[in-house]
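Hi R.,

Here's the chain you asked about this morning:
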Amino acid sequence: MKINNITKITLSLLALAATINFPLQARELRDGTRFFEKSPRLIEAFTTFSDAGVWGAKYYFTLHLPENAGEPLEKITVQQRQGLEDIKFRIDRTFAFVGQPDRKQEAIAIQQVDRDRETQAITLTFDPPIEPGTTFSFALKPQKNPKYGGVYIFGVTAYPAGSQSNGAYLGIGRFHFYHDGDSFN
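And the predicted structure, written out as tokens:
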């Protein structure tokens, strides 16, 4: 049987990898910092009302924590990054559940919801942490929608369980608010 050079190189690299004693998908650094092997995904973000100044809206964020995440998800941070005004939230009205807003399943226990006074970032801590393989949603309730229409952007970061963990930035939730008479073109 004749072996070509590419096959020889491939076999050599596999043999070398087998002799190196380290996991290919570590979840913890030497200093104890935890991280996701496979990042959660922000699936969607939307508001129940897009009119400026409206009361009673909910801002939904839906995420998926893949089976191969390697770690459960313990915290989510949401921070407004763009908009003509800072949106104030009723953090005592925050809730979470397994599934998507149109297919709610069981509630997810939120141990704590905090707001950083300086950055206005909102952090949700789940207890117990959310297990890999779960699609879940959470809702933030603003005091009211912003009075100025426009695009408002919220950055979302997820953190694995553990006191020392690296967050995974998942992207943005984009909300469009309109005044009466605003053009949709």
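The helical segments are 5-19.

Let me know if you need anything else.
M.
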